[in-house]
Amino acid sequence: MSETASLTGRLLLATPSLGDPNFARAVVLVLNHDDDGALGVVVNRPLDVDVAAVLPGWQPFATAPGKLFQGGPVALDSALGLVAVPGDRPDPVGVRRVFGSVGLGSVGLVDLDTPPETIVQELSGLRIFAGYAGWSAAQLEGEIAEGAWFVLPAEARDAFCDTPQALWGDVLRRQGGDLALVASIPRDVSMN
């Protein structure tokens, strides 16, 4: 796969035609995409579970609402930590940059075995995800070709926004044009 074809750092927004309830109106941040497949986390599904229930040491540093997020249907018993690193800082110890750059800010994965106190001063956002979304080789490309996903640019703040339940519509509206209109489609089109 050429580097320009990689979707790493992009958002996948479920189209209204995507029938899988795991992904209805989902906003997925792609963390890795290559010839072997893709991996991402759903960034707009907070659970009614505090981070402390799974990782008590990280609770004080979790971005509001301080809840665990359902990252996807795969490996729900595992946790991934996503962090925002401010613009002028290099990656802190225990953080691997996913996208962005020094100077502009970046999003990275944090090693949750790292003591939080050693790195939180260098972060501007933290979310913990239970599970992830995964696709085998060429599976995601097939779903995109079938019209299941809108592929859109991500902003570093998307994964840490204050209103994650509104993110699907917010991202569509900021695109303008026809995509902005999609944001107003009701969940149940029979209600239209």
TrEMBL record:
Gene3D superfamilies xrefs: VC0467-like
Species of provenance: Kineococcus halophytocola
Highest taxon in the source lineage: Bacteria
InterPro entries: AlgH-like (IPR003774)
Protein family according to the UniProt entry: Belongs to the UPF0301 (AlgH) family.
Protein name: UPF0301 protein AB2L27_18640
